[in-house]
Amino acid sequence: MTMNSRTRWYALIVLCLGSLMIVLDTTIVNVALPSIRADLGFSETSLAWVVNAYLLTFGGFLLLGGRLGDLFGHRRLFLFGISLFTVSSLVCGLSTTQGMLVAARAVQGLGGAVASAVSLSLMMTLFTEPAERAKAMGVFGFVAAGGGSIGVLLGGILTDSINWHWIFLVNLPIGVAVFLLSLRLLPPAAGTAVARRLDVAGAVTVTGALMLAVYAIVNGNQAGWTSGQTLGLLGGAVALMATFLGIESRVDSPLMPLGLFRLRNVATANIVGILWAAAMFAWFFLSALYLQLVLGYSPLRVGLSFLPANLIMGAFSLGLSAKLVMRFGLRKPLGTGLILAAAGLVLFARAPVGGSFVVDVLPSMILLGFGAGMAFNPVLLAAMSDVAPEESGLASGVVNTAFMMGGALGLAVLASLAASRSDSLRSSGEGSLSALTGGYHLAFVVGSLFAAAAATIGATLLREGKQVPAHGGHEQAGALANAE
């Protein structure tokens, strides 16, 4: 399938639409949770599973989805993932019981994981020239960075104007359009399944390890971080991961060639991704809670408060970020962006109980918009820059997993810190809103430390150099083989 330049960009729009739909669903639910709880009779504890069921399967199946794409063809797996996600979205929207909604959310996470894991690989296949790839990655990064805050805005609009069912039903026309356009626009490249067998033992152990870890993390606050349940689950995850590493060092066709992590940029980008995701989740969720619970904003107004950051991310990611990467390489834009994000979080850490939008919210949103817009592109480029074409699905699955795990872990830890600090302040006689704000302040400070650490690691350890084309020569494949 020969693709002209215009067709490639149309194909990128389709991939971004699919990714946006998936990213939105990690956050669009949050503003509708009170309505879902009232309608379906969830308890405060069981309501968390509307979010956790999605996170659990999404985080658990990203690696496997990326490898299946490498083996059986990226377009085929993207179509499968989008189909599964769309059908399960319909079931979510039609749900009339708690069990039906939670089960459908779990299937939705599985479909989202498969589609997300291969979408980056498809994009790398479409764009082989460094300048075009940087620009395309900027567009893709904007969707990933901005999708969460767009989700809050859209969730507020749909929940306020119609009802909560439509936060899921809106995916149906988008999913159908993405599927049909993908058939026409995405390259139908064959996988390598004929020559290689799927590492079933590796797939089972790593997916089990990730799912146990996510389960422990998302329930850590409720069960207690030092409880037998949490420590047992984390211990089980560590044991399964150790088993997985042992399997990968012995099998002929490993799910994850361990030499991948000896590639400096791949390893560094994943560490940066974990820390950056933890900082981003701190920004997004905790600032939304501050706006809603302390300043008394409606769900719709909370969403509108994120618009300045979205517009800045759009400007950077759709043009400026690509130019910065082509001119200055990966390190400087990444380091600068993450330092700006850290500064934005520090500003949020001084927002008072009676804060105003212009003085206490807008400056932070502007800095975080600049930071996310600048940093996302180089992080994703670095994660994919050193790998051979046949490992691109795996590399994208790994970096997506790093973001998801970093975000889930970061959010759980920071929410726990905030709650503990708020309880302590209440015990010492602080008022309710003052105690709540004090808890958020501590979480924002720790989040800013995550972003600063990511900036330091990325700016220090990333290796500059010519970006590797998706269909680059045998040097990369040889390097990977030698590393193993």
The major beta sheet can be summarized as: none
Query: How many domain units?
Result: 2
Provide the β-strand percentage band. under 5%
Query: How confident overall, as mean pLDDT?
Result: 79
> Could you give the count of β-strands?
0
Q: What global shape is seen?
A: globular
- The helix-and-strand class reads mainly alpha
Distance between the termini: 34 Å
Q: What CATH first level of the largest domain would be assigned?
A: Mainly Alpha
**Which bin fits the share of residues in helices?**
over 70%
CATH architecture verdict of the largest domain = Up-down Bundle
Work out the helix count.
20
Strand and helix layout:
Blueprint: H1 5-24, H2 33-40, H3 44-47, H4 49-72, H5 74-94, H6 98-126, H7 130-161, H8 166-169, H9 171-185, H10 200-218, H11 220-223, H12 228-248, H13 264-294, H14 299-305, H15 307-328, H16 331-348, H17 357-385, H18 392-427, H19 432-461, H20 474-483
Helix pairs in contact: 1-6, 1-7, 1-9, 4-5, 4-6, 4-10, 4-18, 5-6, 5-9, 6-18, 7-14, 7-15, 7-17, 10-12, 10-18, 13-16, 13-17, 13-18, 13-19, 15-17, 16-17, 16-19, 18-19
